[in-house]
Design brief:
single chain; about 240 residues; alpha/beta; TIM Barrel; eight-stranded parallel β-barrel; 9 strands
Length: about 240
């Protein structure tokens, strides 16, 4: 199917984001081969899957992720905020996610770091990617270009991608300079001309985050290979089928 879907933090429109429930729900959807997740490090250096630096929004914990051990984080409720049905869902480790998804879908793994926070995150994540032989089924993304340079210095096998919500004509050259072949960009920054420039530079592009069918159809119409990141994979399917 055209315009591959990327389930944003799993099927986060129907289940609590970045939990195994959301990830498994996304994997149950036919024709969905990509899931986007966010990774941080626990106090004891374990890669865990959660978006915010602070625990308050999506768990019953308080404070920052980096101040809790992996075991302590696993004891928190990461589902009750979404609905009582998901009460008891925990913050998964990256390894748990890899165990659930390995061989079933590909992962866009966003590293939540500014280059100072979590200085060992690149090593920890790559260790797991190689342990599960997923070096060709994952892309590591980040807002922080230095993080992508570090990943590239550590490996030539795993693809990397820059995340941003802006446009500048130099982007294709910048991505090439950092060894990145993937761009995760806010959908409003794209048009046909920009997509053509990126395609000519062999950059795979993912637009985020599109959650209504009308917008999905409009943006998907820019280029059939443009990846659509959404909280609602079912809306993606309805929108994209109309373009076939």
């Amino acid at each position: 199917m055209r315009n591959p879907c990327v389930a944003h933090r799993g099927w986060s429109g129907r289940a609590p984001e970045n939990t195994l429930a959301a990830i498994r729900l996304a994997m149950s959807e036919p024709d969905l081969y990509w899931i986007e997740i966010d990774v941080q490090l626990s106090k004891d250096g374990v890669p865990v899957v959660i978006h915010d630096y602070n625990l308050k929004r999506t768990t019953n914990g308080r404070g920052e992720v980096k101040d809790w051990t992996a075991a302590e984080l696993a004891s928190l409720d990461a589902g009750g905020w979404f609905s009582s049905f998901f009460k008891g869902e925990h913050i998964p480790t990256l390894e748990e996610v890899l165990q659930a998804t390995c061989g079933r879908c590909r992962l866009n793994i966003e590293l939540k770091t500014d280059g100072i926070r979590y200085p060992a995150i690149e090593n920890r994540v790559l260790e797991l990617i190689y342990a599960y032989k997923l070096e060709h089924d994952a892309v590591i993304t980040s807002f922080h270009s230095g993080t992508l340079h570090k990943v590239r210095a550590l490996t030539q096998d795993v693809r990397t991608g820059l995340i941003l919500d802006a446009w500048r004509p130099s982007l294709p050259q910048e991505l090439k300079a950092m060894g990145a072949s993937f761009l995760s960009i806010g959908y409003s920054r794209l048009n046909r001309e920009r997509m053509q420039l990126l395609r000519q530079a062999d950059i795979q592009v993912m637009a985020w985050t599109l959650n209504d069918a009308r917008t999905i159809s409009k943006v998907a119409g820019l280029d059939s290979e443009l990846m659509i990141c959404t909280n609602y994979p079912d809306r993606w399917r309805d929108a994209v089928l109309k373009l076939v």
